[in-house]
Amino acid sequence: MSLFLDLYKTYESNQSFVGEEEQGRFGKSYTLLPISHTTQTAHIEVTVTNKGQFHSAELISNKNERETLIPCTEASASRAGSVIAPYPLHDKLSYVAGDFIAFGGKVKNSNDQPYTHYIANLKHWAESPYSCPQIKSIYLYLRNGCLIKDLVKEGILWLDEGHKLIDKWDNKYKSLCGENKPEIFKVVSGGQGSAFVRFNVYNYSSDAELEQKVWKNKKIYDSFIDYYNHQLGNKDMCYVTGRSLPFTERHANKIRNSGDKAKLISANDTSGFTFRGRFATSHEAVNISYDVSQKAHNALKWLIRRQGKIIDNRVFLVWSIEGEAVPNPEDDFFDLSTFNTDEDIEEKSAFTDQAFAEQFNRAIDGYRNDLNHKSEVNILILDSATTGRMAILYYRNLQKNVYLDHLKAWHSQCFWEHHYIRKKDKKMVEFTGAPATEDIAYAAHGPNASDKVIKSLMERMLTCIVDCKSVPKDIVASAFYRAVNPLGKDQKEWEKTLSIACALVNRQEFERKRGFTVALNEQIDERSYLFGRMLAIADVLEHRALKSEEWRMSNAMRYMNDFSKHPERTWKIIQTNLVPYQAKLGKSGWYLTQLLDEVSSRFKIDEFNDRPLTGKFLLGFYSQRHQLRFKKVTEIDLTSNK
């Protein structure tokens, strides 16, 4: 119940956003839904006059404008199959059109039409003390039962030779509808009878309030909320708030998107063993009030659309109840460092250990600026195994200060220098810090890994960050083996895998109280680190000898995988292949030859063997190659002339 309590508090803390349309990703709009409301994809918009007469109608061709906020009841929100449960205002043609059957519409029982239930409910609302002028106008029009007739006249719907609605388009109807396929069949995936209709009221006066769209009018929201609250049933103890409130056994779906049927709370298996044996009824198992259920689910939908990340239907969500800015644990340090600072993007990428530390502390301090004693952070992962059931895979509620400390531990330990194209936005970034969990997943499993594999690894990494756990060994090992095998990989992909693998290995070393820096440490005598340095020198030496601006794989890199498994035996082959390049460089390569001899001399005689190398091999390789690649040529020349 703690999740629903936190979501309920989130809704209460963000009342100012209720009903306010916000622009989301990919041009889609979203809103924090009022209670007793949901969203539906509308296909036809019908406008009536304030006197209840037909005014106009149009097809909603723009997909981004189809999602419509509509009032709903408990029954209509969870209707399925042949169950008759009308929405209170906007609904499908079979519900809102009184002449649906007359024009060939098919219903399960002609003596029990959906329209009969719909118009009775609308009449009750329109004639109640909670009604408003727009609802009365729509009711006055729809009670005439001539909607389809008017839509046919407007050229929205089309009839066959028998004056019945055309179910599915066929070229034989060209003689009736023209050469071009009518737009309605492009907008509606099923037959015309499945079209969803929303209503608006055209106002001849200059009243700005009445000119507002019906589905965006907050007074109409409040009208239905007050009306429906009056219809709610018995009260009982709410497990979330502890108060006696009207309860519900029907909870919301459409959590991830408008077509999502999976529910977090559902108990419709009365004949199986879902809850029998412990409880006689589902109501005894869990009891949540209607108000809390609506607000908690609406807050969750809003948060997912606003800031959630969805991979293969798995939801990753981080939020603060009070609406404070919260860094996402899945993001890399590049995103974290660009928050709460006015510096240019180019200045936000730290390339030295000192610059990284200063930049990191500045970024974390920016998030601490709005801390108070109530500041909390929530981390949630959701997924569904079936179309009807959704599970909470992971949930944590932490004090914001504790969360930032855990995040600080992650970004200050799992760090390395990175130059790569991020998966999430295809953007080239350069920064020193922790990589994003999604990029870690692709580094461990390759660029062609399935979403199922990626979302599973991201979930495992999230628990490591939030709960300060060790990175699973299999993830580090997978990234390591892909990094030491550059053959068959694109250069940019391999470089990205290499730097991410170094970050993961460095995290392991920090857990052993001996973390490394990107800068080369020439005092380290650990055999894997030294072997890494030797391979880097051999790689740079060959590239210097070739003087080619085009990247090609050196002999050292070709043997990298074998070298990591059998360093002593493989080094003999690499050393032999180096001789022609050393000869070609002559005096200009003397510095690299001396450096190679110096690194070799640091080995203890019994450690220069064929025992497989550890992850520190990559750290030594990267740091040595980094130093040589970015060291000034003049500096090398001066050193070689001494």
Indicate the structural class. alpha+beta
Fraction of residues in helix: 40-55%
Major sheet: order of its strands?
5-4-8-7
Number of helices: 26
Distance between the termini: 73 Å
Describe how the helices and strands are arranged.
Layout: H1 2-13, E1 22-23, E2 29-30, E3 37-41, E4 44-49, E5 54-59, E6 67-71, H2 74-77, E7 91-92, H3 93-96, H4 114-126, H5 133-142, H6 147-153, H7 174-177, H8 184-187, E8 196-202, H9 208-211, H10 218-229, E9 235-237, E10 244-248, H11 282-285, E11 288-289, H12 290-307, E12 309-311, E13 314-319, H13 333-337, H14 353-368, E14 376-383, E15 391-399, H15 400-411, E16 416-421, E17 428-433, H16 437-445, H17 451-466, H18 473-483, H19 491-511, H20 527-546, H21 555-558, H22 560-565, H23 567-585, H24 590-601, H25 616-630, H26 633-641
Parallel strand pairs: 4-8
Antiparallel strand pairs: 1-2, 3-6, 4-5, 7-8, 9-10, 10-11, 12-13, 13-14, 14-15, 16-17
3D structure, described in words:
This protein has 642 residues and is α+β, with helices and mostly antiparallel strands. Helices cover 42% and strands 13% of the residues. It contains 26 helices and 17 strands. The strands form six sheets. A four-stranded mixed β-sheet has the order 5-4-8-7. Strands 12-13-14-15 form a four-stranded antiparallel β-sheet.
Give the key terms.
single chain; 642 residues; alpha+beta; four-stranded mixed β-sheet; four-stranded antiparallel β-sheet; 26 helices; 17 strands; elongated; disordered C terminus
